[in-house]
Amino acid sequence: MSSSLLPLFLRLRGRRVVVVGGGGMAAVRVRQLLEVGAEVTVVAPELRAEIAQAGVLVVPRRFVDEDLDGAWLAVAAATPAVNRAVARAAEARRIFVNAVDDPKSASAYAAGVVRRAGVTVAVSTEGRAPALTALLREGIEALLPEQLGAWVERAEALRRRWKLEAVAMGDRRPQLLRALVDLHRNDEGLAPPAATRPVAAPPVVSIVGAGPGDPGLLTVAAVARLAAADVVLYDALVDTAVLAHARRAHCFLVGKRPGRPSVRQEAIHRLLVSAARRGKRVVRLKCGDPFVFGRGGEEVLALAEAGIPYEVVPGVSSALAAPALAGIPLTHRGVAQSFTVVSGHSEAAYRPVVEALGPAVGTLVVLMGLATRAHLARTLVACGWSSATPAAIVFAASSGHAARWIGTVANLGSAPTPAGLEDAPGTLVIGAVVDLAGAGRSDQARSLAAGLP
Prior knowledge:
By secondary structure, the protein is an alpha/beta fold. It has 13 helices and 17 strands.
C-alpha cells in the first residue's frame, strides 16, 4: 500500500502552536514543542502540573474554534470528541493538526525521531502503530555510525568546495562516498592497537523505582540513572515529568493497564536484553518499588539468564507513601504494631493472607484493589473482621489531584471514585490507624500531598 504522506521537517521556532488537552500526552507534546522553540498555547479546563509549570500560555477552559486563529499547527490531545472538533476547526483554517492516538482526526503525524550530530531521521506509520514506530526508531539509531558527526562536517566542507568549483550534482555523490571511505580508513589507522585500547564498561540495565508519582520523591540514584540512560522503558503510570530527567534517552512506554492492549512481559525482557547487548545504558522505570508487585524479580531473572549485568535502584512504594501523604500512620504505639501489604487484583491473591492474619491484626494495605474493593470488603467480614473497622482509600496519592475517602469496611465497596480520577491508582488502608488520619501532619507532608482534603 503506497503512503499518502509527504515527509517534511517543520521549523516552528517562534511560531504559535496550539495544544488542546492537559493530560499526559499533551505534556509530552508541550515538552517536544518547547525543545524546538515553538510558542505554545495550551487550551484545557484542567492541566497536569508539569504543563502549568512549563512557562507556556494557558487558556483554562474548553476548546472553541477561534483558539486556532493565527496558529501554524494544532495538537489535539483530548477526548475523541474534542479531537474531532479541533480537526474540523483546523481544516476550516487550513492548519495541520496532529491528533494524539487518534489518526482519523489527524492531518499531520508525529514521527519517531533520531537526532545525532546534526542529522535527523524520522519514521512514521501514519499514526497506525506508534509502538512499531518507536521500535523502528531504536533500530535505525543502532545502525547509524558513531562517526556520523565527522561525516556531516566532511560533507559540509565538500559541499562548499563543490559549489565554488561548480561540480555537477551527478558527480557529487560518488565523490562524497570516496571521501567518507577515506575518512573511515584514516580513523581506523589512527586507532590505538587493540591491546592498548581501554576496555569499555559492560552494558548495564538499571531496574529503577520511580516512586509513587511525584518527581520530587525520586531517589538521587534514580535521577542519576535516568540522566545517564540511552534507553528508558517506562510503566503506564509513570508521570511524564519524571522522564524530563532522561533528556538524552529514547523513552518507550511498555506499561500495562487492565483491559487495554499492552506489551507482553516476555517482550519487555527481550527489549531489555537486546538494548543492553547493543551497548546501551538501559533504565527499566517501574512505578513505586520494582520488587513490590512490579514484576521486577522476573526481569532480573531474565537478565541474569541472558548474562546481562544489572542493578536494582529501590523506589518509594505507594504502600508506604500513599498512607503517609494522607496522614495515616501504618503503625502507631498502642494501635498497630505491624502492617501487611497485599495485592487486591483477585481473591486468590489476598484471601489466604487475610485468613492468616485474623480479624484486625495490625494494618492492611491493599494495592491494585480499587476494582475489587467490594469483594474485598465482603471477604474481610467473612473472615471475621468487623464491618466497623476503619478503612480509607487514597487516590493518586502524590499528584496535584490527590483525594482520599475515609469510612469503614461496611461501606468500602460503595466508596465513590472522585471525578477525573477514574484511571488513577488507588491505595486501600484498613485498620484502626485510619482513625488517626490527618493528626499531626506536617506542612511538608501537606505540600507533598497537594490536593488531599
